[in-house]
Amino acid sequence: MPDARDLYGVIPYLPSPLTGDGGIDRDTLARLCDYLIGEGVHGLTPLGSTGEFAYLDFDQRRTVVAAVVEAAAGRVPVIAGVASTSTLDAVRQAREWAALGADGILAVLEAYFPVPEDGVVDYFTAVADATDLPVTLYTNPNFQRSDLTLSAIDRLAGHPNIRYLKDASTNTGRLLTVLNSVGDRLGVFAASSHITTAVMLIGGRGWLAGPSCLVPRQSVRLYELCRAGDWDTAMELQRDLWAVNQVFARFNLAAAVKAGLRLQGFDCGDPAPPQAKLDETEITQIRLALERVKAL
Q1: What pLDDT does residue 25 have?
Q2: Low-confidence ranges of the chain (pLDDT < 50)
């Protein structure tokens, strides 16, 4: 199995399949993991944004991580999401996911009140100190009340367990600034909000993204073209995949991914309340986008 301390490639943000009574559908999650690994993805991330971590309690989150670790069975690294408004709770999650067999941590800071930079740095440092697993910092300025500033990223890049950064902004220039500043200490990953070929061109290691669950084979192909330096062919494929990203950006991401997966035979249930599921008109847009890239 690839070492999570040398993470790279296409690492899908997994949905959290829910039953009607709010339980975790472990069978569907295991079947999806097996399918994605068979399609060549380089890792799996439970409890990312697509995994609806903000709407799940601790027991639900624990079940999701345990199910993914079991399904992966050492074939690819499992990078489990840790997210909380509380440092103590985030540390508890990190230790529990490590005990369950996760290979790495994706660290997210939730915030109700704004948190000053020192508090942000202290939070991520505590998560990184909690285990010996490699940590990926997650920055998403569109949704996070207290985001990682460039100076905070520079400070955290010196921690031996903090190895990567996943940037979900739409600012590729910011990514280049990060790479110029800490690229020798942190590996940088893109999100579906970025044109991933462009991120690979400037030195990115890959991407962690929910839509990759729906187009894993195409995403892996795009990564391989970028690694080979075949930028013209990569951009041909990127244009089609970008159209998929644009459709998904119009909707609640978890709802859109779950709707698309249902079309592909993976019924992951509805998004966790109070999120709304997509209507038939919206589902038609998802279907057309997937048909365009031969994902249906």
Answers
A1: 98
A2: none
Tell which residue, 134, 164, 167, has the closest CA to residue 148.
167
Please give the CATH number for the structural domain made up of 4-250.
3.20.20.70
Closest CA to 186 of 222, 136, 241: 136
pLDDT of residue 247: 86
Rounded-to-integer distance, Cα 233 and Cα 251, Å: 29
The pLDDT assigned to 147 comes to: 77
In angstroms, the CA 218 to CA 234 distance is: 10
Catalytic residues: 138, 166
CA distance 222 to 236: 9
Residue 259: how many other CB atoms lie within 10 Å: 24
Looking at the chain, the number of H-run helices and the number of E-run strands are 11, 7
Query: What six digits make up the tokens of 58?
Result: 């601790």
Q: Which amino acid is at 117?
A: E
Tokens of 113: 């009140």
> Measured between alpha carbons, how far is 115 from 117 in angstroms, rounded to an integer?
7
Spatial neighbors of 240 by CB under 8 A, at least 6 apart, are 218, 292, 293
Q: Who's near 84: CB < 8 A, 6+ residues apart?
A: 90, 93, 109, 110
User: Edge to edge, what strands does the sheet with 79-84 contain?
Assistant: 9-12, 206-209, 187-190, 162-167, 135-139, 104-109, 79-84
Rounded to whole angstroms, the Cα distance separating 246 from 243 reads: 5
Q: What is the largest CA-CA distance in the chain?
A: 49
Cis peptide before 141 (omega within 30 of 0): no
Do residues 211 and 36 touch, judged by C-beta distance below 8 A?
no
Mind listing the pLDDT tens digit for each residue in 66-112? Answer: 999 999 999 999 999 999 999 999 999 999 999 999 999 999 999 88
Report DSSP state, residue 157.
Answer: T
Q: Are 155 and 124 in contact (CB under 8 A)?
A: no
Neighbouring C-beta atoms of residue 85, cutoff 10 Å? 15
- pLDDT at residue 270, rounded to an integer: 95
